[in-house]
Amino acid sequence: MSFIDSHLAPASRKSGQIKLHSPQEFEAMRRVGRLAGEALDMLIPMVKPGVTTQALDEVIYEFSLARGAYPAPLDYRGYRKSICTSVNHVVCHGVPDHKPLREGDIVNIDVTFILDGWHGDASRMFAVGEIPRKAQRLIDVTYESLLRGIAAVKPGATTGDIGAAIQQYAESERCSVVRDFCGHGLGRVFHDEPNILHYGVKGQGVELRPGMFFTIEPMINLGKPQVKVLSDGWTAVTRDRSLSAQFEHSIGVTETGVEIFTSSPQGRDNPSSAN
Ligand code: MF3
Ligand code: CO
Ligand code: CO
Fold it and tell me: Which one, out of 59, 128, 220, 240, has a CA that is 20 to 30 A from the CA of 91?
């Protein structure tokens, strides 16, 4: 996810001008998106009690290079790892480390690859062994929030329609939507216009047009929506230490609706559920 400061967008791009992509560029996004889907599928059997997030980071680094891709987070704005691993009350941008995952943890693993100059950005929640019922409920609410956001995407709809769909559903399930991070345009750049807020009002925001590429990546909390960033400058946690979950897909707006670039080739988009 990107910070809601629009200075992440390249200075060369005039605000309000969102790139519309060609069929060839859709094909490039399918290739990098599939790589992200495959990488997350590969991690499913590896996320177990005792494994370190550092080990998962190394697996993705090696996978990237073996597939002729590059892990976009590595050396991005001073970040030093290939993936983000956000455990339990970590909302996003958790930094892989040598601490083993424990039975009952939930972890978001966020991968972004650059392949032939194109970015594919996706994340899923993984359960470490058996997890508490309330954690599974949060994961399933968050996954459904992503699906409802994606379902709002079609030409003529707005970014506000996406946010409203997510917010209405998540809050109806007594969960809260994180405001401080959002989805983002992507393609040849990692974080571009438009910002995709995961809350909002139907009809407001930017009108969607065929050829737009962006992520939707709601962060949903069991408690309050407020977050703080730890002194490492990256790790964002819930202020009330409540559990947080996130799923992310990279998508393109088509003439008729939406194409998801980062789907799981194995049909395991929500791997802790029997989906
Ligand atoms: N993949 C994250 C996103 O969804 C961004 C991570 S940037 C990093 O936008 F530097 F923290 F890796
Ligand atoms: Co993203
Ligand atoms: Co991401």
Answer: 59
